[in-house]
TrEMBL record:
Domain of life from the UniProt record: Bacteria
Ranges of residues in domain General stress protein 17M-like: 7-101
The protein's name in its UniProt record: General stress protein 17M-like domain-containing protein
InterPro entries: GSP17M-like_dom
Amino acid sequence: MSTYTRVSVTTNLQEAQEKVQQLYREGFSREHIYVLTHSAEGTDFVANYTGAEQITVQEEGMLTAIANLFRSRGDELRAKMKALGVPDVEASRLEGELDRGKILVLAKPSSEYQAYDEADFQRTIL
């Protein structure tokens, strides 16, 4: 499993559900698999349908969540993706996919896994 956030662009609910199940089988925990659509209502619906999570204040951080109240929807979506570790350029591209009605499925390794991976990497370079 990688230490980077994985992002999949899906075109419908069935594809999104299959991707969520695949990520779960690959070892991602349910609480680290997220869905995102262009609208908050759509994201809520897809999360309920697939059993995935929504990106919340816990992932974003309080300051970003407050700032999102004053941002355009596009800026808010990019901030949510960046909170999960998606690079700026990729977040901009993916926001365009959301504009076209796509559903994003994002999977972030747990922090425990990342900490272990980084420590393991440091041991191998010493």
